[in-house]
Design goal:
Blueprint: E1 11-16, E2 23-28, E3 36-37, E4 40-43, H1 48-64, E5 70-77, H2 85-95, H3 97-102, E6 104-105, H4 114-123, H5 131-134, H6 140-151, E7 154-155, E8 159-160, H7 161-180, E9 189-193, H8 197-209, E10 212-218, E11 221-224, H9 231-236, E12 254-256, E13 268-271, E14 290-292, H10 301-309, E15 314-315, H11 317-320, H12 323-332, H13 340-365, H14 369-380
Parallel strand pairs: 3-5, 3-6, 4-5, 9-10, 9-13, 13-14, 14-15
Antiparallel strand pairs: 1-2, 2-5, 7-8, 10-11, 11-12
Helix pairs in contact: 1-14, 2-4, 7-8, 7-12, 7-13, 13-14
């Protein structure tokens, strides 16, 4: 059986901003009942090829978690720190409005926080970035209220459920790996590359579980303490771009070069920053026993093969970081609500079960987790249907 969902996407669109000249891309890999889901990212250097890879990953992600939707992705080649970035995002969304109105359910991604894309949708009269799904409900206002309540439900640490659920899922993938191998949580260590929305929440929940996070990295470098970092204190020092104020570091924290996080002696490595972070050039420096991909396409195929040859499995992104996408659809479908405990229980149960399955195959025959996960996604995958076909009401 092939381990690919499909090779060719259903649709590729390229957009040029009439104001800045920036390029944006939409790739719809598959439609299921006329819908596809996937975030919108913004970074300088974003390419159509990158967005296509991410859309393919979203198709695998939705299939793996049995979600009634296909996979898509948006990307804009522009610096999110540029003061013109919000305008670029708004014009991109306006240009993609036919898809956003009826077929493409988008959300936050690298460089585009959820609150920003929601503000853009409000200005466009679409209310919320899940609009294409919400509009299918027999009672869109009720569904919109449930989505808002879930996204804005407070959780310990002063954060919101919608901001942390993806990182919580990554943390559960890490804890699932530790449990599979019988590691004691308090004796297990992790290094996390990137402490923005996804990596920061993963660090928080690993720390809360008692696992020692010994290294984190942001754009300015790696912060390391082999005894375990005070993650809540570090997260308090972040700015809006996920970078830590070095002038107020806790005592005992060493500053290392940015890429040193990959070579830190830790049991689990969580690349949670950029795509293609692990390459053939740096994979031999990795001493971790398992990689848990929090960033999309964090490991190149060549690097993953090299890691596997050294006995280091990679839990693929379309499993490990699927928590936010899966939870959004559970919320849309009314399967969870505004109580974080219900969402955490369901995601913890599903994520740890999937990681246990992947690592059982690895332990039994060194079958790469990506191969097992793709086989599972292929079995779950439904044939894509075209947007012109009937659009059933999926949401209560």
């Amino acid at each position: 059986m092939s381990t690919q969902i499909t090779t060719e996407p259903l649709l590729r669109l390229t957009w040029t901003d009439p104001v800045t000249g920036a390029h944006g891309y939409l790739v719809v890999h598959t439609l299921v009942s006329g819908l596809a889901t996937g975030g919108t990212r913004m970074r300088a250097g974003c390419t159509m090829s990158e967005v296509e890879d991410l859309a393919r990953g979203m198709a695998a992600k939705t299939a793996t978690f049995g979600l009634p939707v296909g996979g898509a992705k948006g990307g804009i080649d522009f610096d999110p720190k540029d003061p013109r970035a919000t305008g670029v995002l708004e014009r991109f969304c306006e240009a993609m409005r036919p898809w956003l109105d009826a077929h493409w359910v988008t959300a936050e991604d690298l460089g585009v926080p959820q609150h920003l894309i929601d503000e853009v949708f409000v200005r466009l009269g679409l209310q919320q970035s899940y609009h294409a799904a919400i509009r299918r409900s027999p009672d869109p206002e009720r569904t919109l209220r449930r989505v808002h309540a879930g996204l804005h439900a407070p959780v310990p640490g002063g954060l919101l459920l919608g901001d942390v659920i993806g990182g919580y899922g990554v943390a559960q993938a890490c804890l699932g790996a530790a449990a599979t191998w019988g590691w004691q949580v308090g004796e297990t260590t992790a290094a996390i590359q990137g402490i923005g929305t996804m990596g920061g929440a993963a660090a928080w929940y690993l720390h809360e579980a008692g696992l020692r996070v010994t290294a984190v990295a942001d754009a300015a470098g790696t912060l390391h303490d082999p005894r375990g970092l005070d993650i809540p204190a570090l997260l308090e020092l972040r700015d809006s771009y996920g970078e830590v104020d070095r002038s107020r570091l806790p005592e005992g924290v060493r500053e290392l070069p940015r890429n040193a996080v990959l070579a830190v002696d830790a049991d689990i490595l969580v690349p949670a920053a950029i795509s293609y972070a692990l390459t053939p050039d740096n994979s031999l420096d990795v001493p971790a026993k398992v990689i848990v991909e929090a960033a999309n396409s964090a490991t190149t195929p060549e690097a993953e093969a090299m890691l596997a040859a050294r006995g280091i499995p990679v839990i693929p992104d379309f499993v490990a970081n699927a928590g936010a996408a899966a939870w959004a659809w559970w919320l849309l479908l009314g399967q969870v609500g505004a109580d974080p405990a219900d969402s955490f229980l369901r995601l913890r149960t599903e994520m740890q079960a999937k990681v246990a399955l992947l690592l059982a195959e690895w332990n039994n025959g060194q079958v790469p987790p990506r191969h097992t996960a793709m086989e599972f996604a292929q079995a779950q995958h439904r044939e894509p249907v075209h947007a012109a076909e009937s659009e059933p009401l999926l949401i209560p």
